[in-house]
Specification:
- It is globular, with a radius of gyration of 19 Å.
- The protein has a six-stranded mixed β-sheet, with helices on both faces.
- The protein is built from eleven helices and twelve strands.
- It has 300 residues and is an alpha/beta fold.
- It has helices at 6-15, 38-50, 64-73, 100-105, 124-132, 151-162, 174-184, 225-229, 247-254, 262-278, 285-299; strands at residues 24-29, 54-58, 78-83, 97-98, 110-114, 117-121, 143-147, 166-170, 187-190, 203-206, 235-238, 258-260.
- The chain is 39% helix and 18% strand.
- It folds into two domains: 6-122, 3-Layer(aba) Sandwich (Rossmann fold); 126-261, 3-Layer(aba) Sandwich (Rossmann fold).
Length: 300
Amino acid sequence: MSERPLRDQISSMEADGTIKPTTKICLLIAGKGKATGLGLAMHNGAYKAMHVDFYYIKADTDDLKSRIEEIRASKGRIVGASVTIPYKEDIMQYLDHIDERAKKIGAVNTVLNVDGKLHGYNSDWIGAEEALEQVTELRRGMSAIVAGIGGGGMAISYMLKEKGVEVTVYNRNVEKGRDASDRLGIKFGGSLDDLSSAAQADIIVNTTSIGSRVSGYEGESIIPKALLEKCTGAVAFDIVYLPRDTKFLIEAKEAGLKVVHGERMLLSQAVFQVQKFTGREEVPVDVMERELLSYLAKQA
């Protein structure tokens, strides 16, 4: 592996006093250039407030398999990992056990190392449910449009279907979109270009990277203004969190929709991860939220 091994990174942190030889390590696994410092702020803020000897570090990589091997070889020193773009689906092939909900969704964003056995979970659906229910009651008979069917899109679509919401997915890759929709038992509306002719809905969700500063699409939106204008009073939810106010959400608010920012989902799914990694139910959510909002304010 050409990139720096985790053991070297951890050794350097021990040498400079950042962590101790006893410190348990948690990882943020992302594609090269896809990891931000937001997860670090939330997780490490929580561990400090909890007075536990845990530390969260970036492990962005172009070699997912090698990162997994490093976790296994750590003899429990690396207790788990958060997983993000583009590995939420690919990582499943390397795991020993996968939670039933994660299996149904077809994506994992949380990995727990239990005596060398890697267990996969999905907390994106939890985060999305809590974020949306702050502004609306999810119930049978509602309809939702979901743009994108990657890991986040599958988790949100699964959650909405479980709540009785009629979900229609649009995806850039039509074949993948149709296959994922069939597996989840939801409607496939077509490519992202077909969003312009989508029917009115109660909820519109962007799960693509369009609008994201991290992915280089800041200032863009995949959701047509015409769709927003016929959905006045609906809920617009963007899982992009940097910038906080994406073009999609700005235009949605102008069209009279209620907006849900991406950091709400991010916070809730991170709380789940801290609980899993530490084995504790009580988590300082207020500290994590403060760290999250402080980080976003600095990036504005």
